[in-house]
Amino acid sequence: MSSDLSTRLVEFVSAVTGAMGLSLTATVTETPDLLRVNLAGDGAEVLVRRRGEALGALQHIVSAVFRDDAPGGQRVVVDSLGFRQDKDAELRRMAAFLAEKAAASGAPQEIGPLNPYERRIVHLAVAERADATSESIGDAFMKTVIISAK
After folding, report:
1. CA dist 28 to 3, 10, 65, 67, 139, Å?
2. For a 10 Å CB count at each end of the chain, is N or C smaller?
3. Does residue 8 share a domain with residue 75?
């Protein structure tokens, strides 16, 4: 990742959270498929209240602004106090559990409604298994994921 992109991400997120009246520290970490903007400081818990609605809104803004800037198709994810990271791990565990249940019983399992980011996590978790498959159903932003035995 270029330090220029990292600097721009930190500056942008700091400006938006500053406009919200929050004094937070933003840092960027990189994985092969992800640029994670981590927020910490006094007031960071405001972003995760009400099931992370404010964090989701900030995520949407950052994704729209930096959609074409991340190299190699990396996604930009904004997190506060590890909220999104914990939620991602919970979704992966739930997807693995439901895939196991679908494979054992033969009955399709549902999870959702989920936003596109959450659905991606579930689909990737199910794809790691050879005995299950997943698909999204619905025609709105929030969709349900059906996990079935192969």
Report:
1. 10, 7, 16, 16, 34
2. C
3. yes
